[in-house]
Automatic annotation (TrEMBL), chains A, B:
The keyword Iron-sulfur does not apply. This is acetate--CoA ligase (ADP-forming). It comes from Natrinema salifodinae. It comes from the Archaea. Pfam families: CoA_binding_2, Succ_CoA_lig. It is an enzyme of class 6 (ligase). It catalyses: acetate + ATP + CoA = acetyl-CoA + ADP + phosphate. Its EC number is 6.2.1.13. One of its GO terms (molecular function) is acetate-CoA ligase (ADP-forming) activity. Residues 6-98 form the CoA-binding domain. Coiled coil: none annotated. Keywords: ATP-binding, Ligase, Nucleotide-binding. Gene3D superfamilies: NAD(P)-binding Rossmann-like Domain, Succinyl-CoA synthetase domains. The keyword Nucleotide-binding applies.
Length: 445, 445
């Protein structure tokens, strides 16, 4: 299988392309327009053109090595066979109605599997919303507005394309984006174990975000994660019994989550339990230096949210070391009489010296990771200059938790993130990111 | 104590008011300008005016019944005594440096407690960022931009003003707002048990959101919650040992969380474990009808996120009833051959019939609460018309989980919320809101 075909197709056929807005074959055409290469809408019942591309009758008439199949499930085997005969090497099959339906659907899926095998076609799906590579303006998907997903350094591979999409939009909402996004669906022959190495090889991907309901190839999946030099974070759904629904969704087998959790108990791999944690962990693993250990130094301008973060972290592998004598002396100089000079350090209010306090804690030899909480004040802003110096001189993760009206702090948030300092809008999101960093360096070697 | 003095002050003295931007006494003046009544900046060292208000030398020279004390802790006792002599009935004390510091600070706090007692002054704080009542444009706080907090129907009372503020901004970011927001700080004589009944009596407050680190008056606190006709949701911090930090913050005593959790195990009261859940639960309790029971009907346009929500809910008190024969027949008519007609109902993709599917499930007698997940598509929008009919005709909570670019779905999100249908931007937030609704009707009577 050559998943890389999806990254660099040489000509794309859109089979079942349509002029009618709202139809899947039209939505797919809408999205593929930005692709920098030949696009061929294939539909024997249509004449003229769609978005300036001339309709053709058959995939035999075109020079394409990727097909986006926008046809209903009963037609898919025939279409895929034609693709194979025409030399198309990769296909995205959007339609549902295969293994997830059982009965006739399962038979259809077996049929397309054997056609794919016969002609050596890499198939994404069936039963997927497709994939997207924003930095190439390449959107092999029918999802409206998918072109609004931002470009970034987090790669997503999800069993459910719905989760891939909602996570991509969520990353975009946070000012981030994706390097590539794949919805696997029923995985006829493109599995986690195919996409994860491709993302690991992709120089634009600095963290791999995985959503899994269940796969027959657990060993291959875990091996791919283990062998990845790029850190991997996974949301394994199914803490409780959701077997019927998951089977009916992407034909996912019922499995004990422990298999995945045990497999992820090693450096570089992290498991989470919500989509928010999934994207936040992706962000922090992509942008932060690898911490040396679990020792967290907390600096807050308002203790209340800092206590919430501390409380959360105490339930994880985090440690709260004493600060060195040197740091405490420096803090005493910077902030005479501040409310709390132990770790956590609390200044009680944002103040001009806040950046220096972060600096003191970040340079403390006992501290591996810094977590900051500060409500935004216009007259002070965020200590971007101090953080810039720290980011250059100190190779430790700093997570910055913000609060205030979005529009007020947006610019400085983005400035911090450009320095590799991820930001979070609630205390527990900041704390969860720190916990993920710690998990990423713990576990069996 | 008359907490109501904070709601309707007749003249406000700002003691320690300043012309210098960035000073606390200037920030407080900035915020109080929108108050529709007399404002008196009090500062014997200042001349002229600030924001058009003439400085006066002493609180004796003014006719005010609320004082915002912007002076450092050592001066507070003297200032409070003057307030008492001048007949000021209520005061907000911003400064820290009292009981949370121990030693001399604790002595200062004892002193102001006895002055407050002698002159019968209702004191908010010390060690607080104050309070806000947006619908009255009344901001007794030094927090910059607090005037951007939206007006809404959620009342907040937080031990940490920092948590009150970050939660208020978060609610605003979600398109909601607060009816009133109080940061208690060190609670010299204004306690949870004073503010909660005031919010319960406030016709603009439909849910009360509480943040508590620990209070000596647990019994009064729990009694106030129990006696409230308005639903109450609490975030009790301190699942782990954070006693030192909390003591140093708001002089909170170390306490076993079980006391609070047991006390909240009754209808109308809900506990949560994050600030996001806190505000989401506030929203859903404020806007939704009370459900008849724990039976959840789920309708999804993309199964993956729906499975995540289902998985989460299976770990709570939620039940997933079979749909009635009538509903299933109706679903078969509306959506022939849809992917999954059991509960959860999954349509596989947004479609024009999606609103009808929600309608069928919401009208099912076996269903008490409806949870919906749908990625936004421009050509379909969200089924606002069908939801409007449902909101009028069916007295059941509907929680709607959205996905897509914010700006695309913003209008329809707000339209649904205007119907009393709260919306959420991740599957687990929607699921948590449903779990909170179920918790609000369970527990001991």
């Amino acid at each position: 299988m050559r998943v890389t075909d999806f990254f660099d197709p040489d000509g794309i056929a859109v089979i079942g392309a349509s002029k009618t807005p709202g139809k899947l074959g039209n939505d797919a055409m809408t999205n593929i327009r930005t692709y920098d290469g030949d696009v061929f809408p294939v539909n024997p019942s249509s004449e003229g053109s769609v978005y300036g591309y001339e309709f053709v009758d058959s995939v035999h008439d075109v020079d394409a090595d990727l097909a986006l199949c926008c046809v209903p499930s009963p037609v898919v085997p025939e279409v895929l066979e034609e693709c194979g005969q025409a030399g198309v090497g990769a296909a995205v099959i959007f339609a549902g109605g295969f293994a997830e339906m059982g009965g006739e659907g399962a038979a259809f899926q077996d049929e397309i599997a054997s056609i794919a095998d016969e002609y050596d076609i890499t198939v994404l799906g069936p039963n997927t919303a497709g994939y997207a590579i924003p930095h190439k303006d390449l959107y092999g998907s029918f999802v409206p507005r998918i072109r609004e997903v931002g470009t970034g350094n987090v790669g997503i591979v999800a069993q459910s394309a719905g989760v891939a999409i909602t996570s991509s939009f969520h990353l975009t909402r946070e000012g981030y984006g994706v390097s590539a996004m794949f919805g696997l669906g029923n995985r006829v022959n493109t599995e986690f174990a195919d996409v994860i190495p491709a993302l690991d090889d992709d120089p634009r991907t600095d963290a791999i975000v995985v959503h899994v309901e269940g796969t027959e190839d657990v060993d291959d999946f875990l091996a791919a994660c283990r062998e990845s030099d790029t850190p991997v974070v996974a949301l394994k759904v199914g803490e409780h019994d959701i077997a019927d629904f998951a089977q009916a969704h992407t034909a996912a087998p019922a499995q004990d989550n422990a298999v995945y959790e045990d497999g992820f108990d090693r450096p570089g791999l992290v498991t989470v339990s919500s989509t928010t944690e999934l994207i936040d962990t992706g962000r922090v693993l992509a942008d932060s230096p690898t911490p040396d250990g679990p020792n967290v130094g907390i600096v807050t301008a308002q203790a209340g949210p800092g206590i919430i973060a501390t409380d959360y972290l105490k339930g994880t592998g985090a440690e709260f070391p004493d600060l060195t004598e040197e740091t405490r002396e420096r803090l005493d100089e910077i902030l005479p009489g501040i409310t709390y000079t132990e770790n956590p350090v609390d200044t009680g209010r944002p103040m001009p010296e806040f950046g220096e306090a972060i600096d003191a804690v970040a340079r403390d030899d006992n501290v591996d990771i810094v977590l900051v909480y500060e409500i935004y004040e216009d007259s002070l802003g965020y200590p971007v200059d101090e953080l810039e110096a720290l980011a250059e001189e100190v190779d430790k993760p700093i997570c910055f938790t913000v609060a205030g009206p979005d529009h007020a702090l947006e610019d400085e948030r983005r400035a911090m993130e450009a320095l590799g300092i991820p930001t979070f809008d609630t205390p527990e999101r900041g704390a969860q990111a720190v916990a993920a960093l710690i998990e990423s360096v713990s576990g069996d070697e």
